[in-house]
Structures are given as C-alpha cells and as structure tokens.
Amino acid sequence: MVLLASASFGKSAFAAQLVEEEMKEDIVAFHICSNEIDSNLDPEKFVEGLVVSLAKNISGFTANLLKLVELQVESNLEEPLFNQKNLDHFNDFLKKKRKKPQVIIHEFILVALKCLGAKDGKVKLVVVDSLDEAAL
Description:
The chain is mainly alpha-helical.
C-alpha cells in the first residue's frame, strides 16, 4: 500500500501513529527518509537496516536469507542471530556480486520472506516514511 497526499496532509503523523501505538506489534521494519540526515537517503543503508529489522522481528528470516546467499553460519539455522559478522558477510557477498539495492530487495529479501509463508495469518508491515524525499 502506498499512501499519497499533498504536503502537510498528515502522512508522517499517520506513519508515526502506526509505529508508536496502533499496529506496533505488526510492524517488522520502519524507516524514515529524511533529507536532513544523508544516511537515511542512502539505498544501501536502507537495505542494511531493512535486513537487520526483519532479522530481529521475523523468526526464520535470517536462515532463509543466509541460505540464499550461500553463507555458512556456526549456529542453529532454525533461529540464527543476525549479528554483525553475518551482516558483514552479507554485505561482502552483495558487493562482490555488484547487486543494486532494488535487486537485493527482490532477489533476496522478498524471496526469503516468501519462503517463510504466513505462519500466523497476520499481515506484517514495513513502514517507509517520506519516500518522496529519497527520490529528490
């Protein structure tokens, strides 16, 4: 779902309400694109933050993601912890393959999520606020 409206309509307030109160249990990742903070507009940082958030909030995501990139982890693959070492391996793999952020999302992140299926039948949300600022 994409929420489109003119400036000052309240889209960011709506996103904040979702994250802070209404659906916080159902939100698995949140990112604010802000032209005031350069790193918030960096597509690679966005993907890295998305991976870390999904790994923390969705059981089994990390195992699926690591299988997709053919990484070996020295832990139980049922619920591995996505630690800095694994994140570094994942980033190194992507740099070697020269994958663009949008390709990473489609070929790795979404595939890893689809492999999990809907275990509890509940919809989970990834909220990205002020995406128009990233486009500028």
